[in-house]
Give the backbone structure.
Amino acid sequence: MKFGDTNFIGVANAAKYKSFVDEDWEFDSLLQHFGDEMKQGHLLVFQMTEEGIEYSWKVDVRVGTEEIAHTCFRKAAGYIEVTENQLYLVDYDCLTMAAQFEDQNVPDQNCSDYKIDIENGYYKVEVLQYYNVDKNEYVGASETDLLLHFIKVPAIEPIAERVFWCTY
């Protein structure tokens, strides 16, 4: 994932995600909004760095049936609903512009290049971060920085209530 602010990366169902927050949103209200949308299965968001380092992430997307037990820097799991046979990988710029302006959409022009074609349904999403950008080191694997592993499930479990790995 190149360009834009990648301090936060998300996976969004563009058809379901309600992106607008307020023209003068505060960071706390934005984080709360992300959490609300995550609980509904419309969005997953991850804080990728504690140091504010922008980086062009190598993201691998897989669909499988079994959970992954790889060694990695950190791992999280959440749930998302897929409609229209697609999701989008989105960056912080995309999310914040759409949060501030009602006429901006997710994905924006940049993130529209990061479409994930996937069958409609509900998915558990395992997120494995191998690259610790703050320490410039890989844990477990070095051919990819971030793995998004989708496992089809019968229903969403609202386990994610806030941005993964968020230090704010």
Observations:
- The two ends are 23 Å apart (CA to CA).
- The mean pLDDT is 93.
- Residues 29 and 51 are 22 Å apart (CA to CA).
